[in-house]
Amino acid sequence: MIYLDYQATTPLAPEAREAMLRWLDDDHFANPHSPHRPGRAAAAAVEVAREQVAALFPPGGRVVFTSGATEALNLALFGSGAKRLAVSAIEHAAVLDTARTIDAEVALLPVDGEGLVAPDVAMPPGVGLVAVMQVNNEIGTIQPVEALAERAHAAGALFVCDAVQGAGKLRPPGNADMIAVSAHKLNGPKGIGALWLRDGLALAPLIHGGGQEQGLRSGTLSPALCAGFGAAAALALKLRESDGQHVDKLWTILRASLLGWTVNGSAEHRWKGNLNLHLDGLDVARLMSDCRKVAFSAGSACASGSGRPSHVLRALGLTDAQTKSSIRLGFGRYTTVAEVETAAAMIRDAVTAQGL
Question: Which of 76, 102, 318, 324 is nearest to 203 (CA)?
Fold first, then answer.
């Protein structure tokens, strides 16, 4: 199987797996919130991981471990207490659906045909919180998040950034107030993420109970998940330059191999480990059936799972037909040149079989 769905999840780095194994064996299973020696050892491992994850973010903040970015974003939006929100029209459902659940007014910040929010976009009057993602999970566009954070602050609002697809790949927004990340999108384990909060920022907890995680997130932490997250974060920072060069090379090969397709979203302002494109008249369901040895997406994994049409592609101005004829190819550190070349050939053959 050729795996080209890195936006849905990434392969677990061997280094992350190794870091986790110690905290799964018979001698290192203690609760990190217990005061005895084994508990203190587990707690120390959690704090080492916290420092490794904190290196993904700007200085002057703290890391709160969560079950993933969805929980982190819920904590940010609910915990802020803001009653007027502004979010980009192409945010992940973890932001859009959460914003609509809060007892608050929600304004959508539009994107242009390339999937970009204008750096000087008008902020609604009285806005208390602005949420714009760093890299879009469906089309890979990189938003001008630092400029948008400035706009939010000028309007008196907090700025929240979903950096799930950008963490470990791009420099974090230095002026955000809160940043959410998820381990399994940077070659770490599933089931753990984090919310970074700027120093001095207070939130109301989302989950109540024992008061763990600085009083913001009750529940027993998993030292194994924390250790895996930390190792993956450290590795991502170490390999950030070479990983970027690698995906740029793969993008160039794939793009040249799939001539006649139209790229969805900006080809310039983009993380090039994401190639979302459409071909008029394409039957995507048939394509996926004919290319069963290639794992790729017909849209975002979240949108596909819900059965809803892609709000991201619609926001770009694509027609329903173009949206239905779009695919997303995602690749990264462990994808080889031979794999993308083979996948491209299989896709071309399947498209030819459809008479396109």
Answer: 76
Which of 17-35 are b and which e, b meaning 16 or more Cβ less than 10 Å from the residue's Cβ?
Answer: bebbeebeeeebebebbee
Residue 226 among the catalytic residues: no
Give the active site residue among 161, 226, 291, 302: 302
Give me the number of domains the chain comprises.
Answer: 2
- Does 40 lie in the same domain as 85? yes
- How far apart CA 221 and CA 43 sit, in angstroms, is 9
Q: Which residues contact residue 100 at a Cβ distance below 8 angstroms, ignoring those fewer than 6 apart?
A: 106
What H or E segment, with its residue span, contains residue 95?
Answer: helix 93-101
Distance of alpha carbon 242 from alpha carbon 249, whole angstroms: 11
Which residues fall within 8 angstroms of residue 238, CB to CB, at 6 or more apart?
none
In this predicted model, what pLDDT tens digit does every residue of 290-327 receive, in sequence order?
Answer: 999 999 999 644 554 555 779 999 999 999 899 999 99
Which CATH number do you get for residue 51? 3.40.640.10
CA dihedral 254→259→260→261, nearest 10 degrees, is 10
Q: What is the pTM of this model?
A: 0.96
